[in-house]
Amino acid sequence: MNHKIPFYDYTFNYKKNSSSLKGIFNKVCSKGAYILQDELFKFENEIKNYTKAKYVLGVGNATDAMQMFLMCSNLKKNSEIIISSHTMVATASAVYFAGYKPVPVAFGDDLLIDPKSIIKSITPKTKGLLITHLNGRTCNMDEILKICKKYKLELFEDAAQALGSKYKGKYAGTFGLASTISLYPAKILGCFGDGGLILTNNKKLFSKLHKIRSHGINEKTKKIDHWGFNSRLDNLQAAFLSFFFKKHNENINRRRNLAKIYHKELSGLKTIKLPPACEDKINYDIFQNYEIICEKRNKLKSFLDKKGIGTLIQWNGVKTNNLSLPNINKKKLISDSNFNKLLLLPMNISLKDLDVKTVCNEIKNFYK
Ligand SMILES: Cc1ncc(COP(=O)(O)O)c(C=O)c1O
Description:
Aspartate Aminotransferase, domain 1; binds pyridoxal-5'-phosphate
């Protein structure tokens, strides 16, 4: 259905910048520079400087990124890795394919993995956490780092939705042994296809991943040092990403301003629980998504649909503790009832202030 206020307009970035993008396409293609070339290294450096991660690698997508860094982390096979029940299946599948067991736990009112539930789920087999900085908000890192220290757990981060998000001034994706950022088109920094990044501060891990993303080849000796993947961020995509990255902070500000409008307009409604407000001293939220917990979720969704407003239920409404797949914990969780009330409202830079106000007015009309 064509919405007058779409959930996400996949043509927006191209239409707005088509002449610059065509220039970039021409430049890169006329050099024939497609794989592992200067534009990729330049983009990796830009992310390194921005996030202050020591090492950054461009890879095929965030799912590969997580599988690769988990495989390289040398935890005992079949170890349990705790994840959130509110994350993409990709977080769980990366754990599974790396040879470990994903253990989903409850999320809190902020929709992020709940530290108390992590503690309750730790067993002698638990060796790591792969936390998701969901919707562009960094998890409660003080609590999580304490848990990792106390129970000797390795920390990994799914920062797929969180480039630019901070906790007490430190960037999401720079707390654990390794992390990923997704560059999927609808992400806050998205390309024209799949793409992802690995961030790490660990030199040894970086040098292994550097080879593993490209068939295990050692660039210096040209020997194959490891079994590897073919998972490299395309040079052309990297060139486009560098172009979009120039406006990254501006785009974050725009999203934060839209979030403020949602907050102002909707905070009086008792039928809706909103995400934490922008004026939070600890978290700097980039609002990749604006996700509400709402009564009569499915009815609200179809009401808005009829009014020409697109919304989305993340993961098609399937939580990771409810996947009918082998080798994953399927325990019922305290957050399950909230999970069925989640709805993403439109949140992106193609929206005008008035669009967000219209969405809010229609939500108010629905609950009248
Ligand atoms: C929380 C989360 N994790 C992982 C991924 C997977 O990212 P990619 O599509 O780049 O593999 C996504 C992408 O939507 C995501 O939102």
